[in-house]
């Protein structure tokens, strides 16, 4: 009993420490999201700087060359991509209420056809509830748009501040690494550095790989929806690319908006089958061709744990929480495996 008390106290202390970190992260989630945005981009850009170093270009000049290239790409993006995206977004906001209204009319038509006067009250309630939900969705659309605009303004501020943070992260990378190493216990430094390299390989490979997968899914979805003649193919395709970040349920979320727009546009069951068939092919290619080529190693996480972690971090930090939930869970799993094997106590 006495031996178990210190272990229980240690477990309580760890639990309270984790709870305090989560509470602090939630309190400063906006600042944390900006830092995470900068960290992810620095993480993605650092291999390019390292490659330039191997080619004989000193790190400061490599960072300058990289920023010049990014400046050219940013000018191209602002000049050509942003106006195109703005036009599509305005068209989407203008047409969406019409689609919602037409969807409500379709539901009401189904009610008239499928619910005769002698039908059970439960069926009547089901259709009336569906129509009522569409009304609520339409009424909340304006508030949702303003809320999204507010979030966009804040994210725009992050995008302005992020390049400065990224510059410092890339510029002082070696100094930061040396500073961290000096704080490591000498007896366990090698084990911790090995752990860090393993986490770096796993997490870095996942972030870069997921970016590639999302872009491929978005491009394939845009092409498929454009060929099928579904309205708003670019926005639906981009949404599909973002939804591919979510494990397991991302496929369902990515398919729902195209199915809605397709049916309201054509009112045909055949077009629904075409959309389902197109996305089935896309996600088959993603799961059995693209991901095996892009991801050299599997994250090897329990599906239930993965979904819970994604929901938790998504609630705490929004999009960046969803993006980083799986890498963080993988890092925790790697640390737990090393701790279970006693790797941190061997040097003592």
Structure description:
The protein is mostly helical and 348 residues long. Helices cover 86% and strands 0% of the residues. It has helices at residues 4-27, 29-54, 59-114, 121-171, 173-182, 189-228, 233-243, 250-266, 269-294, 303-340. The chain is globular, with a radius of gyration of 25 Å.
Largest sheet: none
Specify the structural class: mainly alpha
- What oligomeric state is this? single chain
Taken as a percent bin, the fraction of beta residues is: under 5%
Helix content: over 70%
Model regions low in confidence, pLDDT < 50 over at least 5 residues: 142-146
Number of strands: 0
Radius of gyration computed on alpha carbons: 25 Å
Instruction: Describe the global form.
Output: globular
Number of helices: 10
What is the rounded distance between the termini?
A: 27 Å
Order of helices and strands: HHHHHHHHHH
The averaged pLDDT comes out at: 77
Task: Describe the protein's topology.
Layout: H1 4-27, H2 29-54, H3 59-114, H4 121-171, H5 173-182, H6 189-228, H7 233-243, H8 250-266, H9 269-294, H10 303-340
Helix pairs in contact: 2-3, 2-4, 2-10, 3-4, 3-8, 6-7, 6-9, 6-10, 7-8, 8-9
In brief:
By secondary structure, the protein is mainly α. The protein is built from ten helices and no strands. It is about 85% helix and about 0% strand.
Tags for this model:
mainly alpha, 348 residues
């Amino acid at each position: 009993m006495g031996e178990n008390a210190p272990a229980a106290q240690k477990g309580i202390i760890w639990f309270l420490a984790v709870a305090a970190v989560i509470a602090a992260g939630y309190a400063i989630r906006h600042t944390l999201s900006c830092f995470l945005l900068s960290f992810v981009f620095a993480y993605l850009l650092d291999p390019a700087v390292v490659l330039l170093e191997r080619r004989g270009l000193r790190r400061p000049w490599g960072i300058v060359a990289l920023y010049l290239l990014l400046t050219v790409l940013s000018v191209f993006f602002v000049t050509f991509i942003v106006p195109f995206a703005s036009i599509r977004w305005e068209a989407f906001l203008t047409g969406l209420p019409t689609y919602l209204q037409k969807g409500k009319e379709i539901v009401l038509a189904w009610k008239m056809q499928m619910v005769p006067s002698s039908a059970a009250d439960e069926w009547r309630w089901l259709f009336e509830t569906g129509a009522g939900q569409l009304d609520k969705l339409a009424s909340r659309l304006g508030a949702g748009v303003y809320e999204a605009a507010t979030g966009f303004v804040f994210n725009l501020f992050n995008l302005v501040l992020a390049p400065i943070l990224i510059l410092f992260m890339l510029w002082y990378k070696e100094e930061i690494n040396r500073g961290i190493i000096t704080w490591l216990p000498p007896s366990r430094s090698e084990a911790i550095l090995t752990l860090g390299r393993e986490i770096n390989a796993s997490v870095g490979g996942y972030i870069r790989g997921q970016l590639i997968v999302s872009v491929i899914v978005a491009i394939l979805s845009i092409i498929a929806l454009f060929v099928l003649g579904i309205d708003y193919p670019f926005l639906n395709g981009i949404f599909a690319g973002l939804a591919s970040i979510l494990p397991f349920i991302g496929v369902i979320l990515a398919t729902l908006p195209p199915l809605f727009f397709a049916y309201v546009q054509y009112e045909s069951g055949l077009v629904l089958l075409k959309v389902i068939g197109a996305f089935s092919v896309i996600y088959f290619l993603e799961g059995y061709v693209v991901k095996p080529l892009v991801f050299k190693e599997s994250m090897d996480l329990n599906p239930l744990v993965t979904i819970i972690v994604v929901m938790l971090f998504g609630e705490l930090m929004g999009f960046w929480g969803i993006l980083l939930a799986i890498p963080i869970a993988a890092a925790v799993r790697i640390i737990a495996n090393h701790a279970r094997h006693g790797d941190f106590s061997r040097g003592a």
